[in-house]
Every structure is written in structure tokens, then in C-alpha cells.
Amino acid sequence: MTMGWLLLSVAGVLAIVWGADAFAEHLAAAATRLGVSAFALAVLLAGAEPEELATSVTASLRGAPVIALGDVIGANVALCLVAVGVGAVLVPLPLDRRVRRYAALGLPAGALAAVLAWDGTVTRLEGLVLVATYGAFVAIIWVVERRPPELGEVAELTEAEAEASSAGRALHEVGLLLAGVVAMAVGATALVEGVRRVSDVEATQGRLGLVVVGFATAFEMVVLAWASARRGVTTAVMAGVVGSFTYNVTMTLGAGALARPLAVADPGLLRGPWLAMLASLGLVVALAARRGRIGRAGGVVLLAAYPLFVAGVLLAG
Fold it and tell me: Residue 263, by phi and psi: left (phi above 0), alpha (psi -120 to 50) or beta?
């Protein structure tokens, strides 16, 4: 029976990845046809990090708060260590002024999320605070840069919008876009339910949330970082990853708490991972501090750090 739930989880991951890919691929064309900005449509439909948002909300509604929290933490660690690491191994990734702004706001936002969740609970009021923090982050970046921030799949939309003016019919693009959103919702439900049924022990669910669910929902961004780095779109990689870090600790976690207050029985399960999450972004910034970029050696360091995180999670307690 356990094998059946594992297969359901795998099917959920595949649906999430397909849905995220369809969402990103057709977002710009649909927005152009509808006469709205791609950023606005992304936020309206599924968020800039739709995989994490869908999974966190689903886990919350299904009564699996430790999976919701673990997904946020695990996805952010995978973004910083794996996505940036993969990109940097292929080509040096710059830490330009925009990315430094994202990091300067991302670290305190991550610290705020960790403080709010340190006791193992995130109330609806705290969730509202986190969502408002995301709104403030967007507003600050928009005012300073005179454009919305680059987050996750939205990081490539400027280029995509230029190609979307001659794209297919609006109904076709919107249909595929919505199909992506539905696939992510169905996939998130399957993934969360599979993990819940594999074990009803909170500690096991937490470990699976941090390692399996977190990496699964971050996988689309890892692929995007690899593809962008190969094409030389290096700024988009760093901006997308660091921006997504902030999105996940504010909007994703906040939306999960708004859907249903989050409460885990043993808050100690996630305290070490919270610190590891903050350290992962700090490591990205530290590696780029000297030369303003992360080279191949830095990428190797980041990739090597991820198995250490996984081992720490699996061996803890």
C-alpha cells in the first residue's frame, strides 16, 4: 500500500512540473492577448512561484502543516544551493545591484518568517503580516527599479513578452495557462496526500516535506536556472532565485496560514532547517561578495552543501 502512495506522490510531482512549465510558457502570450501585464496575471492566477504556493496551501488545507512549512524551507534551500549551484557551474553568475537589493530584503524577510514560525505556529494574523510583507517587497522594488521584481518563472517574462505579440489566439493561450494552474493544483494534492499516507508521524512528514516536497516544487526553477545559464541569461537566474526566496517566505507561507492556521506539535523539528535556509542565502551572497559574481568553484561549493543539508535533515532526531 505504501508503494501506491509513493507512486501517487511521483505522479503529483510530474503534474506539478508539467503545470509549472505550461504556466511559464504561456503566461506572457496570454497576458499580451488579454492586455494586462504578465506580472499581474501571474500574481492573480497562481503567484510567481506557483508550485510552492499550490503545495503549501494544499498541505495546509489537508491538515499537514509540517509539510507546508517544510516545503517553504526545503524549496528555498534547493533554490539557493541547487539552482544557483547548477547555473554557476555552467557560467559565472553576477550579483548585480538588482540582486543585491533582493538579497538585502530577502534575508530579513526570511528571518521574519523564521521568528513567526519558531514556536511551530503561524496564525492567520501572522499569515496576513507575511502577505503584506510581500506586498511591501514588490512595492519597494517597483518604485526603485520602476518595474516589478523578477520572481521565479516571471524572471524570463520580459523576453517572452517580446515574442508573444504574434502568439496564438487568446482563448488558446489562456486555456493552456489555466490547464497549467489546474495541473499544479491536482499535482500538489496528489503529492501532499501521498506524503501524508506514507506516514502519519509528524517527524517523518517533516523530513519528507523538507527534502522530497521542497526539492520537487523547486525543480522547475532548477531547470529554468540551467536553461537560462546555458543561454547566458545570468542576471535572470540570480534575480529569479533570490526573488523567489522572498516570495516563498512571505506570500507562499502567508497564503498557507491564511488558508488554515499552521501548527506543528514539535517546533524543534524545523528550527535547524530554518537556520539552514537563512544560511543558504547567506552563503550565496558571501560567495559573490568578493568578485561580485559566483564562479564555477562557488557553484561546486553550493552543490556540495545541499547533500549536507539533506543528511542533516534525515539524521536529525
Answer: beta
